[in-house]
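Handoff note, outgoing to incoming analyst
You'll be picking up this chain. Sequence as last confirmed:
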Amino acid sequence: MFGTIRKHQTWLWFLIIGVMILGMVMWTSSPGGSGHGHTGNFGSIDGKTISADEFASARNEAILFYFLQTREWPDSPEARSRFDENRETYSRLFLIRKLEEYNIHPDPDAVAKLANVFIRNLNNGQNLSLTVFANEVLTPKGITIEDFQNFVEHYLGIRQLESVIGAGGNLVTPQEIRSLYVHSYQEIAAEAVFFSASNYLAKVPEPTPQVLSQFYTNQQAAYREPEQMQVRYVFFNVTNYLSQSEKEIGTTNLNEMAQEALARMGTNGLRYGKTPEEALAKIRDIIVRNTAISNANVSAIGFEKQMSAKNSNNPDILDEVAKANGMEVKVTKPFEKEYGPSELHLLPDYPVETLFNLNPQDQPFVDTPVGGEDGVYIIAYKNRIESRIPSLDEIHSRVLSDYKFSQALRLAQVSGHAFYDSVTNQLAHGKKFSDIAAQANVTPMTLAPFSLSSERLPEVEDLVDVNTFKQVAFATPSGASSSVIPTRDGAFLIYVRERLPIDEAKMKEQLPEFSNAVRQRRESEAFSLWFNKQASISLRDAPLLQQSEKQGPS
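Most recent structure output, in case you need it:
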């Protein structure tokens, strides 16, 4: 089957992984534990036992599904918090069993075409041989070509199953389609008035010490500083190893390695340069840098062995060994769990929160050298700063600024409500909105016509959430004003002048595509309902799934 992949280069956008099955997303959205290494009882589906091989194969397909959606493998701490391997695996097992039950077997040629699309999509639209794809993408993660073939075949089959199960959901009348189109695309002409706290700051009087103290007391929780850490470190900079690493590799070997790497990448290698020569130069630099990082890590391991030989848990050992080696010990600024130390250029997936496990008694050092983007680090405990609430004297200017803003915010919202009352009363007596605004010395913002389907509203998107704004606008009758909607910076209201007529010619042109989208959405919704109901029954005897549910989110 895969021998035909290279013949098919057409992009099948309607099948790209971005169009996913809602049922699976809904049912498998809860994060949880991992199923790696499980053996023994995997339970059954509708009374039919699940074998270890069957479970392992479905597990690999579930991992591929996640990878093709996100372009990352679900083995990083962040990914594990979003990917419940057991749920995803049992979900896929259920669907594969249903494909057998419904005797759904996709056309091999269509499977080959889609496989090629997936591979090219992962390779930024460039061709990639199946062998290279397997060796460089799948095999390092324990995924086989057969797993990939099964995944693509089942992906197509599940789409067909969705069409079968959801067929009843796509029965939508032309009248309903037209009504939905009008709801989504009819534009309104409107004006908005924003009451910003910044415009009222000058009206806020200076608070007395007693008033400011009371405000600080009431808001103390907002001023709590989180726990922070400081670490000391010795840095093995990659730049110190580049020259020696290049000599170790040798010019001839380096050129051969770069040529071989460029040949493997094919035309995709040109992303490293506009010409083959530029690409080769960049690839040589990468090879040398990777070797230098490796050599820096060897030096760091040697440094660490010297510390271990001291047989001491005292973090000051770092300073002692560094001094003996003529190296500098640096100390980071205090940092929080969420952000980590700014001085250390750690890799994006490094769990910086684990640095908070360091302590001077039991764990003064990070167990192993830590690789970074620019070298390798030996990291040791320096200081822990407990969470605290600073005194009013320490943060007086911040508290004063917050107080004034809170009062300006209140004035802005009070002004908004006063204007709304005036608008409501005077519109009822036949006055124009523009005259009411002028009388109140308020300047409305005239908006370009927009609909519920409008993705951008440039005039207001820096002031308010666009979706909230649209919802308020379309809930307001023509010729009327919305109520006052509070925001973090004040408040706003919308006056809807009129709902504009639908462009019949444009609607006629867009209706077929819109109809198809509506039917597909209804089909997916029907499939989701079926999936959630049937899966909950069929997977009652799934011990690892029950284990995930008991553990809850990780």
